[in-house]
Amino acid sequence: MRRISTSLSTSELQRNMRKQEYRLNKVNNQLGNQQRIQNLRDDPIAAGHLVRYQSYVSRINQFQKNAQTLTDKLTVAEGYINQSVEILQTVREIAVQGANGIYTDEDLKNMAVEVDELLKELVQNGNAVNSEGSAIFGGTSTNRTAFDVISGPVDGSSVSYITEVHYNGSIDGNKFEVDENAYMTFQPAGNRIFWAENQQLYSDRDATGYRVSEDSVISIDGKEIKINAGDNVYSIISKINNSDVAVKASIDPLTNGLNLSTTDAHQMWLTDAKGTILNDLGVIKDSTQRPPYNLASTTKISGGSVFDAVIALRDAMLSGDTETIGGKALGAIDRGLDNLITRLAETGAQYERAQQNITRNEKTVLDTTARISREGDVDFSQAVTDLKLLEYVQKATFSTASKLYSTSLLDYMR
Q1: What percent of the chain is predicted at pLDDT more than 90?
Q2: Other CB atoms within 10 Å distance of the CB of residue 150
Q3: Cα separation of 114 and 226, whole Å?
Q4: Burial state string for 7-29 with b = 16 or more CB within 10 A and e = fewer than 16
Q5: Taking the mean position of all CA atoms in its chain, how far away is CA 263?
Q6: Contact 167, 159 (CB under 8 A)
Q7: Residue 39 — φ and ψ, nearest 5°?
Q8: Which of 150, 266, 127, 136 is nearest to 201 (CA)?
Q9: pLDDT tens-place string over residues 296-342
């Protein structure tokens, strides 16, 4: 039971007027920021959906930016690889021309000068930097040149030429998240792209009696392979061959040493991640040496880079060795050209995949934004109708209150 007093009607009127003002302010705020939900209590379920949708859109926008950054990097790398293909095709044409045996030694030396200039351009492409000043083909080692150049005298010439080109980068790649738990790796390692032949390593240390003394880990091309204590060389070979690394192992029938051979054109990257297995087998030096030039001095190596192939062609031209020009040098250039074209195709395929991710993410953002609008945006026509109705009710309330309480202080001043 409510007690009726003289102040009850006034209190009730003020309370109802404040409620009307609150509703009117709420609609005004909704129209002002175009948001239906001003507080979580307005619609807890819709507010929960809205927060998740907004968070998802933020992630998708970041995925889209990542994919766009990747396409930019791939576009630049593709341009340099494509130009390198054109350079190597020109070198091949010169090699075919020089191998037909009708040119004099002086003619071949003149051809060698042109080949050397093309070699310099090829090295320049390998050491290319992007707009940020980072090495494109250095893997994750972007703050230094991808290839070191060594110059020196060459037989048949009185001037200094490029004699060696060493890879100075890493084999690691940068991962870009282009969707939920989906990554694309940008791995423009120069010792993969600018390599000509499958590399083969031959250790002359007899490994038939070798036993692993403790649990160890070897790393081949950045992928770790666990070796257990007590394993012999045949177990090691089996684990290497059964791994997903692009390297196959075998026992040399003459020296009984460990042989390693890549299954595609690239330079091997070998380390003892734990233990000293590769060092014990005479493949690499101790762990203080950095790959890829940490191979043991007794390890025999075959298979070189594109630069090695062009250098061999130039030197053969300087010495007038037409047999090498049309044989070994031309064959190495052909294999290097095949590898460059393969890497160019891989880069193009990655670019297309990244573009597909951008297109899909754009549509996903639009779809999710529509859901956000459905859950959180105000119905403008309904809000305007409610606003006009509340304004009408407020005016009517003020009019009624003024009539109910028409007495003022002036009524007592008579």
Answers
A1: 62
A2: 9
A3: 49
A4: eeeeeeeeeeeeebeebbebbee
A5: 24
A6: no
A7: -135, 155
A8: 266
A9: 999 999 999 999 999 999 999 999 999 999 999 999 999 999 999 99
Distance CA 130, CA 72 (A): 10
For the cut 90, the answer to whether the pLDDT of residue 205 exceeds it is yes
- Alpha carbon of residue 175 to chain centroid: 4
Tokens read off for 374: 């459905």
Q: What is the residue-averaged pLDDT of the chain?
A: 85
Q: How far apart are CA 277 and CA 298, in angstroms?
A: 16
Q: What is the largest CA-CA distance in the chain?
A: 135
Report the distance separating Cα 24 and Cα 291, nearest Å: 73
Question: And the tokens for 236?
Answer: 């090691």
Own/partner long-range contacts of 247-256 (Cβ < 8 Å, ≥24 apart) = 247/220, 247/221, 251/207, 251/208, 252/202, 252/203, 252/204, 255/202, 255/203, 255/204, 255/205, 255/206, 256/206, 256/207, 256/208
Q: What is the pTM of this model?
A: 0.80
Angle at Cα 136 formed by Cα 359 and Cα 176, nearest 5°?
35
